[in-house]
Amino acid sequence: MLTGIIIGLVTGIIIGMLILFFSSPSLMFREDLSKKNFDTTVARVEEVVVAKGWKIPYVQDCCL
């Protein structure tokens, strides 16, 4: 009885961790290479963000 509970608990934890591990990348931000230059891309993203009522606290060009 106690062995079955422990096995079920351990199995549930392992399955939960596997689900979290494989589903978490889809919850993260995705990076794609833009076909436009940096300034044009930032301007377009800012337009869409403002239209949705969101805010951009900071824009950083990491590829200077």
Number of domains: 2
pLDDT averaged over residues:
88
Shape estimate:
elongated
Radius of gyration: 22 Å
Distance N to C terminus: 63 Å
Concise synopsis of the structure shown:
With 64 residues, the chain is mainly alpha-helical. It contains 2 helices and no strands.
How would you describe the overall organization of this protein?
- This protein is an all-alpha fold and 64 residues long.
- Helix content is 56%, strand content 0%.
- It folds into 2 domains: 1-29; 31-64, no CATH class.
- The chain has 2 helices and no strands.
- The longest helix is centred in the first third of the chain and has 22 residues, at 2-23.
- The N and C termini lie far apart (63 Å).
Could you name the key traits of this structure?
elongated; 64 residues; mainly alpha; 2 domains
Topology:
Blueprint: H1 2-23, H2 38-51
